[in-house]
Design goal:
single chain, alpha/beta, Arc Repressor Mutant, subunit A, Nucleotidyltransferase, domain 5, 3 domains, five-stranded mixed sheet, 13 helices, 40% helix, globular, binds zinc ion
Length: 398
């Protein structure tokens, strides 16, 4: 039974040329999780009555189940629909700086497992292929899930990746530059492969489950060890011709500044990225430290650490001001490990944004000033987004 459901679902989700009303409803459910009939009608552009009929048929064939959702604070549970969790699974893999993380989730958006494997810095691709395959196999055995129902594997990559799946120069994974992800993983995993850079994946996670649900236009600005981001317009993440749209960390801040890993000089990341902050902190400590330790120290009141984060916020806001001048988005989602510092980062960031951008909040009518919020998933947004690549069918490598 589970296998039959899986086959139906694979066809409806992965064969994009199928554009029947049923396929549209199934894709809306896959992309949004538990949703009401009216939400599906809005997403698909189909009449509410058509959606109701289709949902009835899908329930009878067990591909869709009814679930109760409860909005916080509002007593009565509402009826929503979701794909049958038994109908399929999706795997997201983060190729991170020092770890490979794997999240297994079902098509109803429940996380089944979340494992992290530490790797030494600058790890090589061939070591990862075997670990990923082995871990995924074990997860399916451990949870007694049929591997045949795995719809696809999404990869979040620390660095830019071309739409064809090739890892581009400037990546934080130097040994992976030039690697074709699909050629590497498809023969081993024998499943559709999806991929995008980790900041784009983070934006997808915030759109699907986090701080930007139902927001069609926003900018995600990610301040972690590196600095990246994503531009979301009309509900879609902009990829760009080479896949590097939203690489805000490489906006040139000082053309005479230090050399960046991308080959340019004085990139924004060198002034407000986590690595720049930990480098300065290590000079004081005379030992290695982590971004998390610096943020924790700042939150506990350490004046020096606060100053480092405030200064990073000031520079970040200036970079973001250019983005704001170009795109004028209604929402900025500030993400990454540095965002854990909350207002210590946000206050100077917003002040310098306001100073340097074109549209000042005082000169716009009420409600048009951009909002700044901290992302919901600061720790695992990239891996969750990798799961989302499969569920939303974004970044399929063919
Ligand atoms: Zn750079």
């Amino acid at each position: 039974m589970a296998n039959m459901l899986g086959d139906d679902l694979k066809g409806l989700l992965n064969e994009r040329q199928i554009d029947t009303p049923v396929a549209r409803v199934v894709r809306a459910l896959s992309g949004h999780g538990a949703v009401s009939t009216s939400q599906i009608a809005r997403t698909t552009g189909l009449a509410r009555s058509t959606v109701s009929t289709i949902l009835g048929d899908l329930r009878r064939s067990a591909l869709v189940v009814e679930v109760e959702t409860r909005s916080p604070g509002l007593g009565r549970p509402a009826l929503a629909h979701s794909l049958n969790p038994e109908a399929g699974t999706s795997v997201g893999v983060l190729l991170g700086l020092r770890e490979v993380r794997i999240i297994l989730a079902d098509v109803a958006h429940n996380v089944i497992s979340d494992v992290s494997m530490p790797f030494e810095r600058d790890y090589a691709p061939d070591r990862v292929i075997r670990s990923v395959k082995h871990t995924i196999d074990n997860l399916y055995k451990e949870h007694s899930l049929p591997f045949s129902n795995l719809l696809g594997v999404g990869f979040a990559v620390s660095g830019p990746i071309s739409p064809a799946g090739r890892i581009m120069p400037g990546s934080m994974l130097p040994n992976w530059v030039g690697v074709d992800l699909r050629a590497l993983f498809e023969p081993v995993l024998q499943k559709p492969i999806f991929a995008d850079n980790e900041s784009h994946c983070a934006a997808l996670a915030e759109m699907m489950w986090g701080a930007a649900i139902d927001v069609e236009d926003f900018v995600l600005f990610k301040l972690d060890l590196g600095v990246g981001g994503a531009i979301v317009a009309n509900g879609r993440i902009l990829t760009g011709a080479a896949g590097t749209a939203g690489e805000f960390g490489h906006i040139v801040h000082d053309p005479q500044g230090p050399l960046c890993r991308c080959g340019n000089r004085g990139c924004l990341e060198l002034y407000c990225g986590g690595s720049a902050i930990t480098d300065l902190a290590e000079k004081r400590l005379r030992r290695t430290t982590s971004l998390a330790e610096v943020v924790k120290g700042a939150l506990a009141g350490d004046i020096g650490y606060r100053r480092l984060i405030e200064d990073a916020g000031e520079v970040a806001g200036r970079g973001l001001a250019m983005v704001g001048t170009i795109l004028n988005p209604p929402l900025f989602v500030i993400s990454g490990g540095l965002a854990e510092a909350g207002e210590i980062l946000l206050a100077p960031l917003k002040t310098s944004y306001e100073r340097y951008t074109l549209t000042k909040s005082q000169s716009t009518s009420d409600g048009f000033a951009p909002r700044f919020v901290v992302g919901r998933f600061l720790d695992n947004d990239n891996t969750m987004g990798a799961v989302g690549l499969v569920l939303r069918h974004h970044g399929r490598l063919t």
